[in-house]
Amino acid sequence: VASLGSALRCGRLLDQPLTALRRRMEADLMPHLAAARHLLPLLAQAERGGRYILLGSPCALRAWAGHGESSVAAAAIRMLAQVLHEEAKPLGVRVQLLALAHPVCRSEAGSDDCPEWFTALSVGRAAVALLAAAGVPGQAIVDIDKHHYAHPRTSLMAAAHLSPSTHEVFP
């Protein structure tokens, strides 16, 4: 599961130098591609085929005034996930992006202030469910149902056959 990116910065895209967007793409998009290049061949060696999951941002779904850099980078990550999804098929690896329609609360306590937002725990549960599910949806973009993952599911990992690997990857 890959959740990479830099902090939100305020400012209109039109007011920023071109280097600001370039830096954002270098910080948010390119690490996903670099990670995929190294991990997809390793995941292809898995018995059941590997899964590589990226976490999407609500910035990819709508333009957020004052956060243009993030919106552009998040949209690029969403497209990268779709391209990697297609390119990884011959390897037997499933690449998917968990699409978040709302931001994530910084703490469980803050979820009362913004009830429509995700909690980190619900996003984690959705990622584990996608990794553990046998009947995983085949599309590149998977939307998270916030309410479905709001509470623990005891059977979530029951069907998962996870064998710990002794193979480690070093840069």
TrEMBL record:
Record has Oxidoreductase as a keyword: yes
Keywords: Oxidoreductase
Family to which this protein belongs: Belongs to the short-chain dehydrogenases/reductases (SDR) family.
Oxidoreductase recorded as keyword: yes
Gene3D superfamilies in UniProt: NAD(P)-binding Rossmann-like Domain (3.40.50.720)
Entry superkingdom: Bacteria
Record-given protein name: Aklaviketone reductase
One Gene Ontology molecular-function label: oxidoreductase activity
PANTHER family to which the protein is assigned, alphabetical: 5-KETO-D-GLUCONATE 5-REDUCTASE (PTHR43669), BLR5618 PROTEIN (PTHR43669:SF12)
Source organism (scientific name): Xanthomonas campestris pv. translucens
